[in-house]
Amino acid sequence: MSDLKNKRIITVATTGAWPTKENTPNVPIEPAEIAEEVYHCWKEGAAVAHIHVRNDEGKAAMEFDKFKEVVRLIRERKDCDVILNLTTSGGVGLKEDDRIRPFHELKPEMASYDCGTMNWLHSAVFENNPQFLERLGLLMQEVNVKPEIEVFDPGMIYNAQYYLKKGVLKAPLHFQMCMGCAGGIAASVKNLVFMKEAMESVAPGSTWSAFGVGAGAMEILYATVAMGGHIRVGMEDNVLYSKGVLAENNMVFVKRAKRIIEEFGCEAATPDEARAILGLVK
Ligand code: ZN
Question: How many other C-beta atoms can be found within 10 angstroms of the C-beta atom of residue 121?
């Protein structure tokens, strides 16, 4: 394992809660489609796969059996050592117990931890109430699942500081700066610098990753690479590869991220390098 300082972790978020086959026929929805896409993204350089599933109608869901099937199909590929990161939101308005069950029983190496409540896309409350966040953090510790602390605005970084002090979260923390979601902070370099500085002031020694949705996607991608962060790409965040052009699949995003990382003079981390960077115990 060469110098980890020059390694950048690519997380691929293939599916998310929102894009439908009507938005893009290329989004993987069925468990077999998701597992296949994750495998090919790993081959292209993704070290982490952030997983959502859908119900039989293609809608956002936390259906345990679907997660179980995706995880089984990925783990079945013996050559594939990608790090699994299961969502604990699934979408908005889903039941807390259902949000917890997949990571608690399937024990991926990571799971998302949305560190506050927000008005999601001016349409619904994305609820992560204090009692839920305490329960979530402690249950993740119980089953040795590393939280990926998703922050949609600076207030969520300060929430993380509170849960770190309280022992609900344990250092070193890993943040995902989610930029440009309506209801959260806009995707700009200036905002990313501010978010990173806020993170460093409350939890020095944390690792971090970022992505921008929509028009800010490329700005955040390039800035993150330049600022030393890890990156997340995929159809959860963007169905367009460039203006007016639908991405053919998730692999094209991974390939582009890898090219940008390499042009900058770094390398995409392998899953084992990512484990070392994130302090995951395999
Ligand atoms: Zn997600």
Answer: 13
Q: How remote is the CA of residue 87 from the centroid of ligand 1, in Å?
A: 5
pLDDT in the model for residue 48: 98
Do residues 209 and 175 make contact, with C-beta atoms less than 8 angstroms apart? yes
Does the pTM surpass 0.90? The reply is yes
**Quick check: 59 and 93 in contact, CB under 8 A?**
no
**Listed residues: CB within 5 A of ion ligand 1:** 87
Q: How far is the CA of 15 from the centre of ligand 1 (A)?
A: 8
| Distance from the alpha carbon of residue 2 to the mean position of ligand 1, in angstroms | 30
Domain assignment of residue 125, given as a range: 2-278
Domain CATH code at residue 51? 3.20.20.70
Distance 154 CA to ligand 1 centre (A): 19
SS3 10: strand
CA of 132 to the centre of ligand 1 (A): 17
Give the tens place of pLDDT for each residue, 121-170.
999 999 999 999 999 999 999 999 999 999 999 999 999 999 999 999 99
| Distance from residue 202's CA to the centre of ligand 1 (Å) | 24
pLDDT at residue 178 above 70? yes
Q: How many domains does the chain have?
A: 1
Contacts (Cβ under 8 Å, ≥6 apart) of 39:
74, 77, 80, 82
